[in-house]
Amino acid sequence: MVSGPIDPARRALDAVRPPPRLVDWSIFAIVVFEAVSGLVSFTVGTASGWPLFWLHRILGLTLIALLGFKLARVRYRLTRRGQWRPSTLLSVLTLLAATGAIGTGLLWVVGLDARLSYWTLLSVHVGFGLALVPLLLWHLTTRFRLPRRTDFDRRRTTLQYGALLIGGAFTYRAQELANRVLDTPGADRRFTGSQPRDGDGNDGFPITSWVADDPEPIDRADWTLTVRGEVETPIESAYGDLALDGEKRALLDCTSGWYTVQKWRGVRVGDLLDAAEVRAEARYVRFVSVTGYRWSLPIDEARDALLATHVGDERLSHGHGAPMRLVAPGRRGFQWVKWIERVDVRRRDDPAQWVATLVSGFD
Ligand SMILES: Nc1nc2c(c(=O)[nH]1)N[C@H]1C(S)=C(S)[C@@H](COP(=O)(O)O)O[C@H]1N2
Ligand SMILES: [Mo]
User: Fold this and answer.
1) Helix-helix angle 121-142:86-109, to 10 degrees
2) Rounded CA separation 263/266 (Å)
3) Quick check: CB of 333 below 6 Å from ligand 1?
4) Ligand 1 within 6 A of 210 CB?
5) Which domains does the chain have, with CATH numbers?
6) Global confidence as pTM
7) In angstroms, what is the span from residue 333 Cα to ligand 1's centroid?
8) In 50-122, at which residue ranges do the beta strands (DSSP E only) sit?
9) DSSP SS3 for 274
10) Do 241 and 272 contact (CB within 8 A), yes or no?
11) Taking CA atoms, which of 147, 229, 273, 316 is between 20 and 30 Å from 193?
12) Is residue 213 lining ligand 1, measured as CB closer than 6 Å?
C-alpha cells in the first residue's frame, strides 16, 4: 500500500506527465536540441552567448523528468521474463548513453574535475552525447509511432511542458545557488562551463591539441613568418626581425572545459597587415600552422589579434605553440592556432578549416 504523503506527490507527477507518445517525441526533440546546442556552443566565446548554454542546461534537466516518465512506463520490458527482444539491447544501449551524458553533465556542473588522462569530464559528456544521437535514431526506427491529435490538449499540454521547463529552470538556479553557498569548484565556472586554471606563463595551463597535431619542436633560427595573399607587399620575416612590442591580457577558453587568463606578448596582427599593405578586397585573415591546422578571422577582428611569442614574460614553450601562436580574444581555444608559419590575407572565409582542425597532423 502507498501511504499518505506520497499520494499528493504522485498526483502532481501524474498531472505534469504528457501522454506516452508526446514523452517519446519530446525526448527525441530535446536530444537533438542538446546535440546541436552543445556543438554550436563550442564556437561561442563571448558573454552575449550565455542563453545558449543556459537553455542547454535547463533542457538537459527536463530530459531527466521525461526519461523518468518513460522508464516508469517501459521498465517491465526489462524486468519481466519473456519481454526481451533483439531491439531491447538497443534500447538499453540508448538508455546507457543518455544516462552517461546526463550524469557527466550533472557532475561537471557541480564542479567535479575528474580526468581520464587528458579527457576531462566535459569531453566524456560530449562523447556520450555524440553516441546518443545515432543510437536514439536507430531506437526510433524500431518503435516508430507518430503523435496523434488526441495526445494534444492546448491547455493541458501547455501546462505540462510549462511545468517541466519551469522545474528545469528552477532546479538549475537552485544548483547554482548551492554551488555558491557550498563553494564547490563548480562555483568558479565561466558562463561556458569552463573551470579556471590559475598560474602565469607556460606552466600555468595545460597543453591541449586536437586529434593528431603534434609537430617536432621548431628551431627559431630556421623558422620564418610569411604574410601573403591580398597584399601589395608580401612579407617573409625571420624571428629576429619581428617587432615583439604588442601586449595583451586575454582569456583562453578551451572546449574541453578549462580557461586561463594570461599576459601575452608578440606581434600585433594590425601592424603586420599595415606593413604588408592590405588590398581593399581583403575580408579575412587566415592563420596557418606548420601542421596544416588553420583558422580565419574577419579582417577587422584579425587586426586586434596578436601573434604571441611570449606568455607571462616567458618565451612560449613548444607545447603552447612556439615560436608563434594566435591570441584571438573572444574566440574559443581551438581557434588560437599554434605553431603558425603563414598568414594568408583573403577575400573569402574558409569553410574547409573545420575539417582541417580535425585531420591536420595525420599523414
Ligand atoms: N596547430 C594547432 N593549434 C591548436 C591546437 C592544435 O591541435 N593544433 N589546439 C587548439 C586547442 S583545442 C586549444 S584549447 C588551444 C590550447 O592551447 P595550449 O595548448 O597552449 O593550452 O590551442 C589550439 N591551437
Ligand atoms: Mo581546446
Assistant:
1) 150
2) 10
3) yes
4) yes
5) 8-194 (no CATH), 202-359 (3.90.420.10)
6) 0.92
7) 6
8) 115-116, 119-120
9) helix
10) no
11) 316
12) yes
Could you tell me the CA-to-CA distances from 338 to 21, 258, 288 in Å, in that order?
A: 49, 18, 9
Whole-angstrom distance, CA of residue 278 vs CA of residue 299:
10
Q: Which three cell numbers stand for residue 242?
A: 619581428
* Polymer length in residues for the chain: 363
Cβ contact 199:315 at 8 Å: no
Reading the chain (363 residues) residue by residue, the pLDDT tens digits are 445 566 888 888 888 899 999 999 999 999 999 999 999 999 999 999 999 999 999 999 999 999 999 999 999 988 888 888 888 999 999 999 999 999 999 999 888 877 777 788 999 999 999 999 999 999 999 878 888 988 888 899 999 999 999 999 999 999 999 999 998 888 889 999 999 999 999 999 999 987 678 899 999 999 999 999 999 999 999 999 999 999 999 999 999 999 999 999 999 999 999 999 999 999 999 999 999 999 999 999 999 999 999 999 999 999 999 999 999 999 999 999 999 999 999 999 999 999 998 888 776
Residue 264 to residues 112, 135, 172, 252: CA-CA distances in angstroms?
30, 44, 36, 11
Beta-carbon neighbours within 5 Å of ion ligand 2 = 208, 254-255, 333-334
Residue type, 294: R
User: What are the grid coordinates assigned to 112, written together?
Assistant: 567535479
Radius of gyration of the chain (CA): 25
